[in-house]
Amino acid sequence: MKWKKELISNILFEKNQKIEIHNEGSTMKKQIILLICAVLLTISACSKDDKPKDQATAETKAEYDKNESSQPAASGDEEAEETAAANDAENTSEEDASSENQSEEAKDYLTSHHQFVASEMTNLSEKEVSSMWGEPVRTEKIKFRYSGTSNFVPAVVHYYQNEKYAVTFVEGKAARLVYSVIDEEILFDDDKTKALELAGLPTDVEETTDTDTAFVWNDIGGVYEVTMFSKGELADYLYIILDEAYK
């Protein structure tokens, strides 16, 4: 019996030893697996940390390269704009100078005797005319009909300087002008060009109509039509249609 008990004890001891060895092996495997997982997680975390840094570095470099490449272009654009602006200013100055020269050449007929320049009255406002001749001494409201139409529009006639000048304003713009020259005592037939000279008009243009009481010039001195009426032997007044639109 004793030997049986010892045999059973030995068998149980060996079995316990195997279980302990198995348990120790399992525990070691678990520890190894956990260690490997920890290492992998650490590597993954480092990779994630490095990726944003690398990405940020790459983006910063790309932005820097973009700025570097755009600066010369921007500088070139600015230089081009400055050059274009300078050319425009130069061209404008040349055009203005050319226009002034042409204007001076076109009006080389003006003399020191002219009291105003008829062509410069075209389309002036009431305020602009008042700045030349003062406030009107009286005013008439009329209706004006454009040539070739049946429509009437509001108009006004202002008289200036003791009615020496009368300007018809159509829709706020100077359209016609009556200039009294009776006080100048200009002989109607012999000295008629003196009246033209006073109105800033050329005197070497042939009249298109010649009657006993009126002379008519068309397209003279930058205005559409000028009619000189007589009063006895003297020139009475000039009736000037400033623009063809107001004929």
UniProtKB/TrEMBL annotation:
Residues 48-68 have a biased composition (Basic and acidic residues). This is Uncharacterized protein. Residues 48-108 are annotated as: Disordered. It comes from the Bacteria.
